[in-house]
Amino acid sequence: MHAVVATAAGGPEVLRHDTVDVPSPGPHDVLVRVAAAGVNFIDTYRRSGVYSIDYPSILGSEGSGVVEAVGSEVSDVAVGDHVAWSDAPSSYAELVVVPAARTLHVPGDVDLQVAAALPLQGMTAHYLATSTYPLGPGDTALVHAGAGGVGLLLTQLAAARGARVLTTVSTEEKAALSRAAGASEVVNYREMTDLTTELPARVRELTGGAGVHVVYDSVGKDTFDASLASLRRRGMLVLFGGSSGQVPPVDLQRLNAGGSLFVTRPTLGDYVATREELVLRAGELFDAVRAGTLDVRVEHTYPLAEAAEAHRALEGRRTTGKVLLVP
Hints:
327 residues, 16 strands, globular, alpha/beta, six-stranded parallel beta sheet
């Protein structure tokens, strides 16, 4: 079979579309023929060496497909089932082994490409809006990268819960997408010369001087200071990514000076740690898709062989919505 292998730590050029052995499922696993694999920033962190992995290594952890074989101890997944997953290593491939306990049943009326776009980014948006800072009427949230894969989903989920959503984007095209997802106000940070001072001033102008209850920040180094300064008293900064780079160590006295602020650095694994929570989050997302209340934007699909170009587009912020690789 074919797969995308990171041969060493480095840029997109280290990715190779190679022939590799077909993996064998263990007793508690299933073997899935991949319909689509999700491309996420965590993949670029692993490729570049920000997150340590052994090389050579097949990248990817998210996708969807059709079950081709099941392990001897698997009883609740069958050959032919449509499944999706968020955390199965080596998903940039034609075939992947997924632990049966981590599979998500895909309803028959949900397209497999849509299903591939939901597990990681969709469940991330879900836990951010419902658990890390449970949004509700009266809350105002600032979402960075509002036209990105998580940003569009998070904006829709937040608005559905009655929150007011402000977003940041880098182009007018992305601004239109963000507004369509439910953003009340959209700020184009490319029009600012000093994001650290101008963005908080704009946020306070939009919130009657108070600031927002929560900032959802996936950008990291370039936006962290502006995010912290945009919070109201006892507000929470949720740093869940670092597309611009990792945030340097922070003097905790800044939280005191800013108004008894909170900062958290969550990860999806801790919010789907049990089978019950995993199924709950995925089920609510699939239900929303089927009901037409959640629009999953699959904007960019690349052949598996063009994974390097997909990484370049993602890191160059040339994408909106979800990026998928199709074997």
